[in-house]
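Hey, I'm writing a tutorial for new members on how sequence and structure tokens pair up, and I'd like a real worked example in the thread rather than a made-up one. If someone can provide the structure for the chain below, I'll link this post from the tutorial.
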Amino acid sequence: MKRVLVVAYSQTGQLAAVTRSFTAPLVASSSVEVAFATLEPETPYPFPWPFLEFFNTFPETVHAMPRPLRPLKVASAGPFDLIILAYQVWFLSPSQPMTAFLQSREAARLLQGTPVITLIACRNMWLMAQETVKRNLHALGAHLIDNVVLTDRAHSAATFISTPLWMLTGRRGPFLRGAVPAAGITEADIAAASRFGRAIAEGLPDLDPARPHSLLRGLGAVTVDERLIASERIGYRSFRIWGRLLLMLGGPRSIARRFVLCVYIVFLATMILTVAPITAVVKRLLAPFTRERIARERAYFAAPSGEADDLRGDVAHG
């Protein structure tokens, strides 16, 4: 009997639905025992978010200063043959609850020497968050064997509107009489995530903890959007710099911090609406000269599971 632990935090319920679909074949398997642990912050995060509180969360998020968690509740004690970490992306970083878990004694005890699969559901940018998680897992002595990412399939311009509206109103849409599609992962993509669980259930008996290997290669576990690589790096640096400044001004209730935060929100919106399109044009013009470097970067960020040429085909037959 193989033992799997699923550690997750879902604020909107979307990641919880993805996780249920993902793990359904494991739960149904007679040769796998699955334990679930839901991360519970001592002070719950609001949903929908008040406007200023939403943005005021980013300094602590990007600088890995999360709110503390309640003690982790696991139905059965370790060790586990595989741990699945399901997390959201907040401000190009792992969500605060997942960061708090990775900093905890429970994580140090559970993850040491254990194969890990990460599961992400987000708008479209996840590269920098996963890099942070990878560093944490390496420090804890865990073995990352796969990464699965589900993103919003709508155009970036549409999700730039729909995702914030979802976070701030609690409504997924569609908005503007259908001109802006509903935010989030489609029901078809959520249902198709079960194919990963089937592959894990089939491959888990042969997984050697001493020499763990990918169980999901070739299944289209991730798709790297090369157009977003530079944007993520720039955005992450911006969050780090401004986040450090805001932390110097005091806690979330500091009047000075709130004032400067409002300035940053205007700055951020201006950058997204002006600099981002210009950067996209420049990248397209330089594409013939950077093709090899971009290919290397795509392969790096897609590891360890790798990309598939046609994820839509996998979804259609999932």
